[in-house]
Amino acid sequence: MKRNGFTLVELLAVITILAIIATITVPIVINVFEDAESNAFEDDAMNLSRAADNYYTALTLESDTKLPLLVTFNNGKETNKYLNNANNQCETSNDRILEYSGQNPDGGNIFIDKNGDIYLAIYDGESRKCAIKNPGDSTITFTDKSKAECKLDNNPC
Hints:
33% helix; alpha+beta
């Protein structure tokens, strides 16, 4: 009599091979996801830096400037504080002033002074990184600072 099917030993061998493959591939897949989160934050930081440059360049053509400007991010929400030079008053706004694509960072600030110098210190909770850029820096530096340490103390008013 001929039997069709697999023996217990054959099934255990297949399960063992699948377990070995899973043991090897799961850490690789997790690293790919972590790298993607980190790269996305780096792209967002560069977009914000370019948006700040573009904002200052656009304002040099207008007479109603809002400089110096402090953009503050808190849990992904944006708050802007600036000196409105038209009436010389300090104003606050929750409107998105900087035009950029990407997600808002979890914390930090961007400061643009009257000379167009841009200071950036923003934090991403998923990658646990802080992006820092000072005037004259050609690149953004990414550090392991905490959210509390990743901020600017500049005040536009």
